[in-house]
Input
Amino acid sequence: MAAMRRSGGDLFDPILLADKRFHGEGYQEGYNEGGHSGVIEGRRFGSINGAKIGSEVAFYSGFAFTWKCILQNNTDAKSSKKLKTLDSLLGMVGSFPYEDPTYDKLQEDLDKIRSKFKQVCSLLNVQPAFQNSPQAGMSF
Amino acid sequence: MWWGSGAGAEDVFDEEADELRIEQREWKSRMDRRHKEGYRDGLNAGRESTLQDGFNQGYQEGAKKMLAVGQLKGILSAVLSWCQLNRSDPHLITQINQLLSAAAQQEESIFGKLSAAPPEASVGDIMESIEEMGLDPVLEKPEAGCCGNVKGENCCNSSYEVRTCGLDNTASSSQEVCCRTVSDPSGGAKSLKGLCQDCAILLENCGLPMDIAHHFQLQS
Output
């Protein structure tokens, strides 16, 4: 019996080791698989979010630049105020790193751009069509 | 001496053999379980490890893809509001509205593709779906012909697909795909380019500065 107990203690280690080994093998398989699906999942989610922001910001830049060109030869006080606001919006859009999801003030800057755009629209006295695509509601 | 009796020894061995088998089975199922547990843990860990990178990658791609069409919508929207403000010719306004709708559709189609399918499909996946659809003739030149448009994804060289399908008049399934490829404007690049050119012509017709078209490279 004494011999059994001794060898029993030695036998226990391989069991634990095997336990670890099987878990480890499964883990590695899962890790590889999970890493692959994580990239796909993340990319899809990221591309949707990037597309929404990219589309919105690009819209503002197209809108503001076009209006700037329309008004650029007018010299009256009203037009110069409009042009100033348009320039300000264009500056904000131009410096907005819309391609960088890690930018920490993304939402903050985007909100500023949106309110500047609203200001531009009210100054121009227009209500632009297709301002946002139907899906372009922000979700963060 | 208990092993002296033949019958007794057999019984003992049988019992031990049974036990051994049971133990082996238990051992196996235990190790299977450990393997599965490990797999599950690894799956989550692996997923977490790449999710953010994938997101960042996709984000950049998505933002870039929307750039041209978003700008186009902005330009058209500005021109429309300018024309409405000036009470321009209703025909012109209708025309701008149509262009704007087309641009919005284009945008939705790009967006739909981004959210529908994984950005990358392996050659194996595509081959599989081609086989499932019974498009054997296309298989002769898989590298050249299939770049994902089988699943309705963006395809830059759809002309090859169309040509291949066109030659193969016998397989009706090929014809269907062929029609879809032709009618689907989702190829993206070409019809977006067409819209940009239409927009440039519109700007010119409205007497608006050509700076706009140059700035956004509408005619390139």
Summary: The first helix of chain A runs from residue 2 to 71.
